[in-house]
Design goal:
727 residues, Maltoporin, Chain A, 22-stranded antiparallel beta barrel, five-stranded mixed β-sheet
Amino acid sequence: MKQFFFLFFIFLNCLSLQTNADENLSLREIYVITDVLTPGEITSGQSSNRLSLSDQFHQDTASLLNIFTGVDNAVNGSVSSIPYMRGLNDTRIRISVDGIDLQSACTSHSDPTLSLVNINDVEYVKVFAGITPVSMGGDSIAGTIKVKTGSPIFSNSEELVESSSVRSFYKSNNDEQGTNLKTSLASDSFYVSYSGSYSESNNYSAGSNSKDSSYGGSSDKSVRNDEVGSSGYRMENHQIHFAKQIDNHLMELKLSYQNSPYQGYMNQRMDVIGQNSHKINFTDTINYGWGKLEFQAYHNKIETKMNFGKDKNFNYMGTPGMSMTHHGFTSGVNINSEVYLDDKNTMRYGLETQLHEVDDEWDPTGGMMSPNILKNINDGKRDRYSAFAELDRQWNTQWYTQTGFRLSKIRMDSGDVQGYDNSNMMMYGNDVNSFNSQNRKKDDTHLDLSLTASYSPDLRQTHEFGYSLKNRSATLQERYLWSNAAMVSSMANWFGDGNGYVGDVNLDKETAHTFAYSAVFHDENKNKWNISFNPYLTYVDDYIDAVSFVSRADGFRTLTLGNQNAKIYGLDVKGMVNLGNFNGFGDFSLNTAISYARGQNTDTNDDLYHVMPLNMKVILSQKFNHWSNSINIQVVDNKDRTNNIRQEMETSGYALVDLKTAYQKNNFLVNVGVYNLFDREYDHPLGGVYFGQGRTMATNTSGVTYANALNVPGMGRAIFSSVQYNF
């Protein structure tokens, strides 16, 4: 706590730097770290200068990230995919929603941060890949994803202004359907809004028969050979937003609730049979002539219940199911300030505190799963205290720099654990005694640095350079998962690879050194064409990876986590050209994006897990009167660089073609599209092992259940339509 008060003293001294300056000054963001998806592109799915492949076809908020180069989504639940940024997963990415960054409470990652956000509420998305400004957060090495939900819109007079919109959609492949309602009431100083949505789907179908009827062993339910089991869901979201302007204060209160009575997980052994989260977020933004000061306080609570869903066997040797419950609590307070020092310099600094707690308990259900409650993580705590300072300087018309540092203290601890039956020494007792005898209280100190510079020699090009030093401490799951038993460890899997994972109390923090360069060329007005090249290189000391394994009868492995070293390098290229107006056919534009990444464990020379192979996205857009049309093409190379210790499977290359059309007139908007136009059969390279059906918990059965495991198949052809009307 002494360190926290020292950081608070630094913050108070920074306030003395406040000086009068032009309050309209706004220094620009730089290409090497920032990529932005704007509100209009989210709403319409069309843009003359952006690549859009994800919107409309998916209700998963993480699907919005598919537009960005270097960011991909690993298959998880239907609306809970897991972001990967240049080969690094979500636990290494700072994912911030309205200033709140949450951590998964579930060992299967059924609750990634973006799954708790209604896609219809998203106002904009910013991606900071590789090099992240320290003001965007720490305790992460891959980058930052910043999501903003709705901002208040006040009226220009004292009269009340009401606005509403209603949207409904349907997708043919899996009968996915849903509705969304937004309504707001505003005066010149008060604003209140409500947003609610409900959506559901059945299992989706692959492009062709991807398996035979014997896959997964004997099953309680028949699943068609082209059907991807455990891929359906039901979900509802609600958010109430209050805002009040008083003098130079803008105070906002957001209350959010999500309920998912069912969500299948096609690459996990169990499904969500009930999940709900409650979030309260208060901010007060105070504007001054010298800049602004923001205070934020928040609390999030989530409870997840898991068991075998309808496509997976429920009974094993007479034992009815396996009930698991995860409780997660996250609370925080942030104080941030932005100061316009003069017409060339802007400084940001702040203090952040976050308290995170997880309880992971498995109820006894009989047989070997009795008589105790199994405590997988008991009163796990991961608290973080941070302070940062960051300076933007516009040296002249050609040079711009951003420099910053962040200090953080991570404090972790966990209570004693227990198995279903501690007297069973081979199954539980030895692991329980070993874990409980260790010192589980751990402290890490982080120093994050970010240095970036931008040089524009003329109006047609910009060159940018960046270096960052980032730290990340282990998650509660990486540090405190304790059981080597195949059945228990298999539930501890946030990778979707079918293996089991065992943590290590003594894991060191990860330290990443990232070097990045960006060359951007464009026309003088930046509206006719542009092309950018962004190579990068990251070295990670003490990278947390699977370091040893025990083979199992079911063909999978029980893996132990430890510290090693890794490097990641690659290149992102993207470009846009306005093709111009063709008489009678409207305006045309072409967008392309190419990404290549390579990740390697330098201790073992093994390839890192879930690194996307070379891929390209192309979109040809047309705008004509009230119509917006596009042809989207995604081409993905073979994935033949795989992670050996996890037995990651190879995938074949493929190409997908989507068609989209939108008609908007006045307050009426209609979208129609066809996903996977040619009904292509394909496996997503980040799909993991298919566990959507059958005897998913037969971990001690040799050569019967998943001896010839399959990748999760991608969705076949789907026709999508949506209608929206604004009042």
